[in-house]
Amino acid sequence: MKLGFYPGCSLEGSSREYAESIRAIAPFIGLELEEVENWNCCGSSSAHAMDHTLSLALPARVLAQAEKQGLHDVVVPCAACYNRLASTQHELNEDRKTKEAVVSAIKMPYAGTTVVQNILDVLEQSLTPQVTANFPATFPYKIVCYYGCLLVRPPKILKSVRYEDPQQMDNLMRQIGATPLNWGMKTECCGAGLTMTRTDIVANLCGTILEDAAERGAEAIIVACPMCHSNLDMRRKDTERITGKKFTIPVLYITQAIGLALGLSPKQLGLQRHFVNVALQGKMKFQKNVPVGATAAGA
Amino acid sequence: MSRIGVFICHCGENIGATVNCEKVAKTIAAMPGVALSVDYKYMCSDPGQNLIRQAIKEKNLTGVVVAACSPRMHEPTFRRACADSGLNPYLCEMANLREHCSWVHAKSGATTDKAVDLVSMLVEKVKRNKPLHPIKVPVTKTALVIGGGIAGIQASLDIANAGQKVVLVEREPSIGGHMSQLSETFPTLDCSQCILTPRMVEVAQHPNITLYTYSEIESVSGFIGNFTVRIRKKARSIDEKLCTGCGNCVTACPIKKISSEFNAGLEMRSAIYVPFPQAVPNKPVIDRTRCSYFKSGKCKFCETKCPAKAIRFDQQDEIVEIQVGAIVTATGFNVAETSFFPEYGYGKYKDVITGLQFERLLSASGPTLGEVKRPSDGKVPEKVVFIACAGSRDPAKGIEYCSKICCMYTAKHAMLYKHKVHNGEAYVFYMDIRAAGKGYDEFVRRAIEDDHVQYIRGRVSRVYERNGKLIVKGADTLLGAQQVEIEADLVVLATAGISNNGAEELAQKLHVSYDSHKFFSEAHPKLRPVETNSAGIFLAGACQAPKDIPESVSQASAAASKVIGLFSQNEMTREPVIAVVNRTVSPVFSTCMGCFMCQGACPYNAIEREEIKTRDGTLIKTVAKVNPGLCQGCGTCVAFCRSKSIDLQGYSNEQVYAELMELLS
Amino acid sequence: MSVSIGLDTDSIAGWMEQTSGILVQRCYQCGKCSAGCPAANEMDFTPSVLLHLLQTQRNAADKKVLSSYTIWLCLSCQTCVTRCPMEVDLPKVMDLLRAEALKRRTVHPRAKEIIAFHTSFLNTIKRFGRLWEVGLVGEYKLRTRHWLQDVLLSPSMFLKGKLSLLPHRIKGKDEVKSIFIQVRSEKENAP
């Protein structure tokens, strides 16, 4: 499956391991990724917090760029970027005046025809049972899937199904041998963009999430959003300091979990970049540096 | 020689302020064939009507046009005035200068010109009107009541006690409806079954009532006074005459894991079952979709245990055809399930239940014999949270209306919980408290003041499960929308009242209007609450909209009174605005060619075939014939007829063309 | 002391209806948004209360809204609009209020850091077309004087390869800059 690929700023910087894991697993699950050329930042929360038109113009440029490149389907692994691109596309479709204003700002033709997909949509399509049956390993842990906010809300725009209790990630994890547990914080906010300015709020929200996960006996939290990962992983010490509780549960991107089930090494998946030690080796055997491009047996 | 009398009404300011009525009257007076053209302030008043009566006599009028409001308002008034003076009422027509002119335009010369157009068109039509006479149809004095809940029961008893015959059809194995599922009723806390079952028994034993349970309406045809109804008596698989209701079969049945409808899914029943102990009739039914014998040919255990040899596996559905004169729909409502609420768990939490399920827990004949025990582990809950408006008043969920009864039953539930669990805590999250009935507000105050139910004003954003408790996250808007969190043992959702299963299909069978929520539509929301737009079909109870028991009973009695009124005559009259196929002398007999396109086009199946024969019985030709009892005067056949052999009395081709030609000239 | 009531013709509610079609009158104050808001406990006015202030259509209430901390604390998590029975687009209302608060220069004093963060973030995009995290942190510290903020985090991030010292300049960075110029006025509203 050939797809356009919009990494967004986090995947280039503070969430590098997410991009690494995606690139590592792509050949094994039949994904051919073509990066959007010259892509700019989507504006994330800061743009729409300060200026509505700017918050539409920046994503619109990305979409216009994808169109220019002839990329019909684009996968957007960052949940915030995904939400911005999809919401922008929706709003420009609904409001002609706004569309005109935005198109005049970006000075590029814009048709609004790109199909914006999040990582879970793409994984759902490419991780068929036939594909996972040929995985050399599995991910045999009890986990909880944390979707956060922007992958599923607002449901009317993102067309999300079962948005209060989504199952996409859970199903994918089950397919690679994990046991997804029922828990109470699936779509509760981690504190998002207040990570620097009100770290205490992030700490309290993340504390609640981590506590629930730990209480249910989860061995790892699986995420599909770099902001959530950052708040749950990078901010762990702050969370412990502010809540006065200790949490050791590691946080993995779903693509990293899949990579482990593919027998890729932790280094290939960027696990060493995490702040919270991913000590899952107990039940797994890692192969040493499977070369990129090699296919899983029979895949 | 036409002598038409024209009366232009000012209708107070309604027409007079926008249309120059004097000018209209003057202009029309100049039309050929108009003998009199006047304007007057209020034509519908007594003096106004007298104007017409006098004019008919004095000016020897051959027709009358009253230019006023909509004919739906006063056509009968003016027609009666004409009839009083000896003029056939169908020679009187109304031009609508109000809804079609003054109410939709601004005051101007063009508006008055339009009024002149409207009146002149009617004058030309009336010149060609023919006298018509009402049609008489016989009335079958049997009523059909569909639905055996409290509304259906009340309507049946009222009609039967008035000496008329009733056929009551109920699709469940027993009558009783939702009221039989209730524990106690507000505001008196009467035991629901105690006040209901005497009526159920009365229905079963009443000589004027024929009760068909486990039966559904197969088809309905006909018209007011003359409906033909086919009822499907579903096979119970029991010979009711032999069955003694001993219950051995139910005990013997090995299939015991079917979710019980009567207990709202909180308990299991067997494949052969009686829905509840006080069922009327107290005879079991085999659920053929779950019975081993019907699925795989094995078992038949019940048959071996039946002392009366009453089990009949080979019983078939039976179709019964009856003639009735009126139909009362009393098919009730349903409540939304917990799976309807994403933020409350999509129905996956066992201890998040609906108000109806809580009712079953409270009920002495329920799954917990009246003790409040939570479904997941049978423990007695110490903290119960009641969430009002769950789904109702919620356009985002597609239910923008208020379900009316939930504020009251939530107060009742909280009170009964406190009565049974003295040290328990009951919280009610509400938006408003709608307690408008007699004794209702006092009832809610009782819950708050006597039973110390804690009312919190605000909605609940989310409920999720943790460590066997349900975490309820709500807000107290009276404290600045402060977040409140309650760790509850049980959460009861007062879910929205919705239309019953199969309501749409039944409405279509009956040709009764229904709204976007599949509640049946009343003919007029203010003045005709128990009639439908289909003559002879009446509404009773919650099938029209969610309502409580006193209202359902009132509406049922109201519907019954309509039926009794209808049955008080042996004949009823119908408007003669019907289609007629032309007939003439031999050898033509009729210009109808017998193509019967009209028959296919008629939405009311009112066109039949008529054989024209010689005196010795030889067939000459077969032509179309309109059944004057069924025809609704829609005119579709007239449009279809290629040879113009069928015409509509009161709106003939000639009359309509005359109107058009007058407008275009 | 009682408040004198009237309906001000230049109220925010009216302006919101005209420009974005959002009808604050739809809200019937059920409180579900406040109940589910992750940041509500830190806000000076919880979301439903904020909306009620707008519903009063009084200039004094509007002022309170624009100078509230609430609008800056909003996480845009979309929980409110997802659960609102009247489908009031509260996240959009918050966006509009923030922009208006900046325009009228009536921001809550506690919002200084949050605005500084957003401004610094956007400034790196304006210059380079993409986020330059080091630049963001640097400008943020300059604006807020929180010199020691996350000072222990940065070395770890750098060692883990998550922080690039130099910005990535995209080829279209001038186009991005011109978007900023066209869309926004260049007056920075950072306090």
Outline of the structure:
The complex is a heterotrimer of chains A (299), B (665) and C (191). Chain A is α/β, with parallel strands linked by helices and 299 residues long. Chain A has 2 domains: 2-120, Glutathione S-transferase Yfyf (Class Pi), Chain A, domain 2, CATH 1.20.1050; 134-283, Rossmann fold, CATH 3.40.50.
Notable characteristics:
heterotrimer; A: alpha/beta; Glutathione S-transferase Yfyf (Class Pi), Chain A, domain 2; Rossmann fold; four-stranded parallel sheet; disordered C terminus; C: 191 residues; Fumarate Reductase Iron-sulfur Protein, Chain B, domain 2; 2 domains; 11 helices
Walkthrough of the structure:
The complex is a heterotrimer of chains A (299), B (665) and C (191). In chain A, 44% of the residues lie in helices and 10% in strands. Chain A is an alpha/beta fold and 299 residues long. In chain A, helix 4 (52-68) crosses helix 5 (79-94) and helix 4 (52-68) packs across helix 6 (96-106). Chain A is globular, with a radius of gyration of 19 Å. Chain B is α/β, with parallel strands linked by helices and 665 residues long. Chain B has 5 domains: 4-127, Rossmann fold, CATH 3.40.50; 142-234 and 317-332 and 500-567, FAD/NAD(P)-binding domain (3-Layer(bba) Sandwich), CATH 3.50.50; 248-305, no CATH class; 335-498, FAD/NAD(P)-binding domain, CATH 3.50.50; 579-648, Alpha-Beta Plaits (2-Layer Sandwich). Chain B is 28% helix and 25% strand. Chain B contains 18 helices and 34 strands. Chain B has a 5-stranded parallel sheet with strand order 10-7-6-18-29. A 5-stranded parallel sheet of chain B has the order 20-27-21-22-23. In chain B, strands 2-1-3-4 form a 4-stranded parallel sheet, sandwiched between helices. In chain B, helix 1 (21-29) crosses helix 5 (109-127), helix 6 (150-161) packs parallel to helix 15 and helix 11 (355-362) packs parallel to helix 12 (406-420). Chain B is globular and about 90 Å long. The relative contact order of chain B is 0.10. The mean pLDDT of chain B is 95. Mean pLDDT of chain C is 91; it is low at 186-191. In chain C, helix 8 (112-128) packs antiparallel against helix 9 (133-144) and helix 8 (112-128) packs across helix 11. Chain C contains 11 helices and no strands. The relative contact order of chain C is 0.11. Helices cover 53% and strands 0% of the residues of chain C. Chain C has 191 residues and is mainly alpha-helical. Chain C folds into 2 domains: 12-107, Fumarate Reductase Iron-sulfur Protein, Chain B, domain 2 (Orthogonal Bundle), CATH 1.10.1060.10; 112-183, no CATH class. Chain C is elongated, with a radius of gyration of 19 Å. The A-B interface holds A 162-165, 182, 184, 212, 215 and B 342-343, 345-346, 348, 462, 464-467, 471.
